[in-house]
Structures
1.
Amino acid sequence: MRNNGKEIAEAEIVLKGLGVSHGIATGPAYLVQIEHPEPPEYALEPGQTEAEAARFDAAVRQAQQELFALKRKSTGLPGDAAEEIALLLDAHMAMLSGSRLVRGVRARILKDQINAESAIRREIDSIAGQFNRIKDTYIAARGEDVRNVGYRIIRILMNVPFLSLDDVPPGGIVLALEISPAETALLDPRRFSGIATVHGGVTGHTAVMARSLGLPAVLGLERKALESLHHGAPAIVDGIGGKLILNPTEATQRHYERRMQDLKADKATLDKLTRQPAVTTDGTEIVLRANLELPRETDNLPASGANGIGLFRTEFMFMNRDTVPSEEEQFETIVEVVRAMKGAPVTFRTLDIGGDKLARALGAHLNASANPALGLRAIRLSLKEPHLLEAQFRAILRAGYFGPVRILLPMVTTAAEVEEARIILHKCHDALKKEKTPMAADMPPLGTMIEIPAAALSADSLAAVSDFFALGTNDLIQYTVAIDRGNDQVASLFNPLNPAVLRLMEFSIQAGLRAGIPVSICGEMAADPKLTALLIGLGIREMSLGFSSLPRIKQRIRSLSIAQAENHAKYIMDQYDPDRIIQIVNSFRS
Ligand code: PEP
Ligand code: MG
């Protein structure tokens, strides 16, 4: 900027957002996208509706072609990113053929006699509105997908081109109101250094894409980011701290250069750990397994060093579809995972639908509750509708022919539920045997999730009927401190270190160990390196967590001794003040 003929630097602006992709990027920032175009709205004459529907059909065909072209273009992207994007583009293409979106828009044109653009806008508002009512970030992200596909067709109808990324110079940071997942396909990380947007959440597809592309990203920025920007202004995307810094001062630049060096060194060290065992300094092995939602994630397994799958959330096979998957369909999906694991065990958790996770296919059972988290969900639904459980058990038993499998029951409250499930499991086993269907040689271990305070408090009776325990701390925290895990307004009160939570965990771990059954933890606590010493000190010897966090946790385990961890845990368990516990955890060094 010039002032009285003198060059002066623009003031540094720090904007807060959500750091959704680990890493830091520096470069010139470019605003690449304006808001969605405002669609025209007009009524049709009765004789015009068929022609308007045909105009809409033609735009849908063009949108399909565009997505095909994008898919071709994205095959050149590095690593997993190409596959990830192809799956997303496939999902968008599926929305363009015979979906509720396409059917709904046609019906609105023909019945309401309105132009295609406004019919699309009304239909996407209606679908996204229904999704938003569910108040779940995953489902809200699917609403965004519908909106993106809808606006693609609107742009085609209005002849408004997508803003090109061509003007962004190599190494630039893409700043946008929002970037759709399809547009993310154009963000080759060899060309762009980072992403910053106003819209988007941690579990949205743009965030997923950014992570798989390895692009540092900050989403959910304050809107003034767009107003504060001069094209090409120097910028820093801090994907760890969740910040976009425009016009950084020299001191800020030096600070981030140092952090980037540290990150580089860190990654090199973590990469070297892949083949190293997860042992403490005094030689105790901690079994590290991976949490998995989608079968294709097994591709990440070799690089992560995981020893099998500790939690496969089968409910994801039930989402984004109108019908319940058959035994055969479930078998095909899970056998793929078992095969890919080449002899490492896979733990399949039976359906955990309800509460924050809904599936259209089971909507009739799940909609009518004022407190869905306390309603007919998970094992309760599976026992009420045993055909659901039977199909899952049969599919898992059959997959057991191809490699070791374990079965995990979600949201258990009483030992009777485990016993009832075990009877059904044996019935399925007998039936398969009679049918001479190939299946697991031995009955797979049947484990119980400890994620309800009542289960933790009766862990001794549950241990007597379970082959292993898995601590689901995400729900255990939610139910113990009465904080909805998906609600932003109380997110700061969702505290894993609340002494009540820790006591329930300690009680269940001890009950499991006394009974001689393995006890693992598969909630997000397992992925936080600050908590590793505490968990080991409490007696945990198995952990299951997301692939990307595995190397860091392994590194932490390798820096600890069991004696240190036990002393640390003992000290914490003597405390009653959550803030003091946080302080102790943060200052603990091994
Ligand atoms: C948990 O509750 O900690 C857990 C692992 O299960 P989910 O997050 O799927 O509810
Ligand atoms: Mg849970």
Note: The pocket of phosphoenolpyruvate (ligand 1) is lined by residues 311, 313, 352, 451, 472-475, 522-523 (CB under 6 Å).
2.
Amino acid sequence: MKIVSPPRKLLTEFCALSMKILRLANRGVSRIEFLREVSKMLIHFSGCDALVIRKKDRDYNYYWEAKIQPQEVFHFKKHEDTPLSSTCESDMERFYRELSQGHFDPRLPFFTKHGSFWTGNADQPVTFTSKKDEKKRSYRLKAGEYKSLLLIPLVVDGKNQGLLEYKSKKPHFFHEQEIEFYEGVAQTFEAAVSDRRAQAALRERVKELACLYEISRITQHPSTSLEEIFQHIAELLPRAFQYPEIAAASILLDGHTYLSPGFRKGNYNLKAEIFANGKSRGFVEVLYQAGNFGLEEEPFLKEEQSLLDGVAKQVSLIIEGKKAEEDKQKLQNQLRHADRLATIGELAAGVAHELNEPLGNILGFAQLAKKSPDLPKQTEKDLDKIVGASLHAREVVKKLLIFARQMPAQKTRANLNQIVNDGLYFLESRCSKEGIELRRHLSTDLPDIIADPAQINQVLINLVVNSIQAMPEGGILTVRTRAYSNHVSLIVEDTGVGMSEEVKKQIFIPFFTTKEIGRGTGLGLPVVHGIVTSHGGSIQVDSEKGRGTRFEIELPLTEVQDVVENH
Ligand code: ADP
Ligand code: MG
């Protein structure tokens, strides 16, 4: 028997509740927070004891249960498959499913014309015919301590999307006249959820764009270093995520880590790999700590994975762009260096020519003077010194001329191994005298090159002499030759004093020397540079202070081809 009493709530109160729900949806809180607030409102408003929402959502289905007395208890559960069509379902579940799918005839008792079901005595089985198969069924609702139930299907675009369930421990709690209003509230709830979703999507998109825009803005500053850029991105990333206050971000790149402020490791993470120049270089990661949820909602949105992928891509582009920029800078530096050497070379050549004649006179007249009879011993000694000094000066002039490439190269077909063997022949005894072990590792199948053997010999001697001078206490000197597909290499390696970065930067500058006057002219390596460049080759230097030095001279093979073709 139904007890009919006048509705306790007025239409205006239902309207006010609807407005509150819509306003909440507009605040842009998380789904869990939204469900929590809505449940509280609905329970307070209806005065019932519990509220259950079963809902099919965009990403998954969920089950939500809320109680606020004696204390607030909320329960959220995600369903992988449809929660409303399980195979081993109880009567109750089957009833919910059929109800949520609109399978009951609303003309039957306990149903409203919108398909909601309500009862004030849940212990009593409900019997009716299912619309689906016309079979009469009896359902035991097993509502436990709850005596009154009100189940309202959530309908969107004519499709059932879930069920809103009010439960009360009091029998006959719901009033027939109020149910239509509750159905109205359910509709508002559904509208609010869709609205929230649309708004959330928009908000996420805005955050995402703001984040990408900010990244491109910081990379525009030419003075910003890569480290600063990556640090900035790590700080920026949490803001683009759903829960910025508790999100942490890190970028791991080539072994360096960049962390957002107050970074903490988390249990939930989203990652995107950074690929640059075809190699994996690290990853971008955003993390949450589980403790911050307490509810098992999916912490990341699908869009957030795309955002992170986008950021990883940006990072890759930044690295690749910076590398290209650096390569360009390096090339420009090399050009500038070559330019400077050429200018100095021209100058040096001019000076050398000017000096050649007076030097020849000094030497000649000193030698002539020595032939005078009855010279005092001291004068004879002094003349010897003049001869020695002018010979040294002539040597400097000769090197200057080679450096300035004023002595034309006489290129022929030549074998590097041959040049090395001939050259080392004169240096072997000097090495053993200075306690230096000379090792040779000559490639057995070294192709010929087109080169000036005298000049390549000069290169070898300049390098070997430097190495010998770098090992005053003895050591090991290794000379190698190697064949490659398009060049041959001459490698001179020592276990000597090595060079500081500061020295290494200046070794090709003419007259740069760290040796005392008389021992070093500072022209050995500039000459090497001039010869190698005129042969179309290149020089690599590796050196470590206290450990030793390694010079590798690469001479191209292509010229052999050219010469052969031209003849
Ligand atoms: P010089 O030998 O007359 O000083 P170079 O042009 O041959 O002039 O070399 C310039 C400088 O480079 C040297 O003074 C020395 O400081 C450094 N250097 C060259 N080769 C070596 C080496 N094998 N080990 C250490 N330092 C070297
Ligand atoms: Mg030298």
Note: The radius of gyration is 45 Å.
3.
Amino acid sequence: MPENQIATIGVFPQAAFLPLRGECAVAVVCRFLCFGEQMKALEEKIVKEGTVLPGDVLKVGSFLNQQIDTVFLKEMAKETGRLFSGCEITKVLTVEASGIAFATAVALELGVPMVFAKKHPSANVSGEQYYAPVYSFTHKTTYTIAVSREYLKREDKVLIADDFLANGNALKGLISIVDQAGAKVAGCCAEIEKGFQGGGDELRKKGYKVESLAIVERMEDGKIIFRE
Ligand code: 5GP
């Protein structure tokens, strides 16, 4: 059987186990074995410590966005490393600032460098850059994100990481940067996905492997409901 084809078992929806764009056989098997398993501890932490703010914003500053629960971060990175094991990732890419902690922890787990795109022109950036426009959900403005060409090469297999996945604009901008470098997108990961905003499913439909540690299906009257 070719490397990118794995047999599926009838009781599961077959489409769930087809190899995704750039996904290796080991990752497909891992996905198969872990079907249905979610990071329940993160869901519990979101319910306990999260607050729903106007405009569909979920505030998780106590452990993820401003104060970071480092022991829990390590657990999330470990789980993400497991989800992408065997994908031969050479770099983790994110965008400043809120993606940096998670991306660093994941890169540490995978033993590869972490690169972050800058949102603001900086005096200590030199040389040629890759650029992409990104509309920010939280700041309601469009940034031009930039990555130095020297940090992404054609031979790289890149895991794109962010704290939140909402409409998918940040990830799409980062995918554009990986494409400009001629490198390969191994997949995308987020600590929390807001499924109702559709960005994650749009990328999955395009064939990207997208793994979020918790997927919020709805936020109603301050209550948080997760995807089954
Ligand atoms: P997207 O580009 O997918 O629409 O939004 C993802 C980006 O917006 C992330 O980098 C994240 O920082 C921010 N973001 C989106 N939704 C939320 C949210 O509900 N809470 C927080 N804290 N950040 C969010």
Note: Residues 57-58, 65, 98-99, 137-138, 162-170, 194, 199 surround guanosine-5'-monophosphate (CB under 6 Å).
